[in-house]
Amino acid sequence: MVPQERLQGPIPWVIAIMVGLMVIAAAGALALRNTGRAATSDLAGGITVQIVEARPEVRARLAERAALVLREQPGVSDVELVPQGELDALVEPWLGQDAPEIEDSAGGSAYADLPVPALIDARLAGPADPARLAALRAVLQREVPAARVDAQSTWLTPVFGAIESLTWLALALIVLLGLATGAAVLLAARTALGNNRGTIEIVHLLGGTDAQIAQIFQRSTAIDAAGGSIAGFAAAWIVVVLLGRTFGALQAGLVTGGALGWSDWAVLALIPVGAVALATLTARWTVMRALKGML
Question: Does the keyword Cell cycle apply (predicted)?
Fold first, then answer.
């Protein structure tokens, strides 16, 4: 009934492209989800205290005092005063290794050290909600008026929003690619029915049922879809692995947190299986509906 050779028609290659794109999009969505979870886990309950003071000796003394006050507070742990060397490394990409040149009051130029706030990292036993932050600010303000308390998670709130938006965009892309795959199989099945209409009528006259005829198209579509899905998944796997190595070489915290695990690959492996099932069911539904109107 379907005389074409396997993997020579358009459907296997269309499915291969669709599956490859779906796997890449799903891998991106899973990586973004992992990144968000890792960042949330690392920053949950984390707070940063800044000591804003221009005089270095006073700033150092206030930072020690603030760290001592934090250690005495219930529910506060892992209080660590960030070394000056780390702070210098953080601002070096923007300010350079030497002191910046600034304009003095006389209109000339001079070199001066810019005061960098002292930083204290700490972790709360629970989430850093506004009430707890307000309580810590009140305590520190009494002892160290120059202290500023911020939740670490608030710094990355826009990043988390962007990650969530990109995740939903990837999921929407997967749905659209799935619909496009189903539409391609539907058109191919209707074309095959039209090309074999005379044979189908003879089979009907010989006592063949609609289910038997649909099974032939269904089996043919399943074989083509399986071959295309395997090829598409293999190509997508190569792309995802190469991209993972490229991003992993950046050694950035947010990027490395999005690495795919075995459970993620198990989810990705369901995409070609789902594509085969979708193509098979679409072919059967298309053929059965067309056969009912044929005779």
Answer: yes
